[in-house]
Amino acid sequence: MLELFKSISLNKDSCTPLYIQLCDALKxxxxxxxxxxxxRLPSIRRMAEQLDINQVTAVSAYKQLEKEGYAYSRPxxxxxxxxxxxxxxxxxxxxxxxxxxxxxxxxxxxxxQIRIHENTINFASATPASDLFPVENFKVVLNEVLERDKGNxxxxxxxxxxxxxxxxxxxxxxxxxxxxxxxxVQIISxxxxxxxxxxxxxxxxxxxVLTESxxxxxxxxxxxxxxxxxxxxxxxxxxxxxAVLEYKLKTCKPKLIYTIPSFQNPTGYSYSNRKRAELLxxxxxxxxxxxxxxxxxxxxxxxxxxxxxxxxxxxxxxxYIKSFSKIFMPGLRLGFMVISSELKHKTLEAKHxxxxxxxxxxxxxxxxxxxxxxxxxxxxxxxxxxKERYLELTNSLDKHLPNCVKxxxxxxxxxxxxxxxxxxxxxxxxxxxxxxxIVFAPGRVFYSGNSPQSINNIRLSFAAVFRxxxxxxxxxxCEIIKSLNSIRDSYVNIRIL
Length: 497
Ligand SMILES: Cc1ncc(COP(=O)(O)O)c(C=O)c1O
Prior knowledge:
By secondary structure, the chain is α/β, with parallel strands linked by helices. Helices cover 45% and strands 13% of the residues. The protein has 3 domains: 2-88, Orthogonal Bundle (Arc Repressor Mutant, subunit A); 91-132 and 377-496, Aspartate Aminotransferase, domain 1 (Alpha-Beta Complex), CATH 3.90.1150.10; 135-372, Aspartate Aminotransferase, domain 2 (3-Layer(aba) Sandwich). Helix 16 (374-400) packs parallel to helix 18.
């Protein structure tokens, strides 16, 4: 074993302290599986002798390893390696993958070209960091449910959902938003499952689905996996162009229209109330079912008061899907749909064949969470945190963005869509920013195959970034943008000449 440590080479002339160099070398060995879980590291004295370093350096390196979760000490016995699988994948990595998983960006991340760690300023993830999760109150309701319902909490649940939760959703969560009965609510294991269940219920191979462009890539992946053909329509700041929308409906005859009408992902744009009403009329005329994906309408910072399509839906052709991932805890895998009686049998059947039901324990706990008033308090808390971040981000952009870069304030949601000048090297920006510990989502990952090649947008999200990181992060990002843009200018000038 000691032979292995001989291979560690430390550079005494480097400006990186020796103990950090040693800690990094050990971390690498642990991540690569060279040091198995629970194996004992050499004693301080042996390690110091082996590498010809001071014992204090070895102590500091071991302490740093422990601090980062790679090792633990047993008093009087020594320092041991922790579970390398646990440590090899920092939690933040998972957050970024929710929307990157199906693009080539994933390989960029996993090849370590872009690394997310503790100090990374993360404008890439639109999912809250776990420090915002209401763990304590959720513990209270979980314990109470276990005490109250005992083994029943672990029985198969009705595929439709746990009825008291369906009531809480219709009476509390949707109060003054959508008029519906508890029976119109279908519980799902997250919005992603909702999109899949609807596709399973209503799409046949080769059917068209009309989506916005750009859009949430997880939905595109579902439609493709069901063998659907995709048609898309460019989304503008107040929704799509209605004439183009009608043309696409007439020519493609889509079975489904997938839309995110409020604070769209990734653009942050919202349909005007007029366009919402027109979309409904057109869906009626061309006999399409609308999937309304509501993932963040709760964060309406400018009080725009957009009406959900479902609240205007007299014909029963809108299926409203609500995700809790951006407001609550994505790992709960909980969401719901509101669906008319004409459509609900097919979705219920599809839900049943998918996973029989969403976890009964989680449904019961969430129901109690709402009934105890924790939900409203948590929503207010998230609203205030996100609003603070939104204002900090827009103020910082106004202060630092060069004139050639454009964006529109969405007034809510979690994303800001930035448009770089024509020909801007977004890839270089991605890499240079990552080298400075700043990450964001390049716009191209939100387009399906049919879309233009030269996407020069980027998406900045503020769900997972701390307020204090925002202004320094934007200031640095803008510095990089300016330097890359001056190179682009000279390149464009040469081409013009
Ligand atoms: C627009 C949109 N819809 C749905 C989802 C998936 O949500 P859930 O975690 O509830 O499945 C996401 C996740 O990022 C999203 O951005």
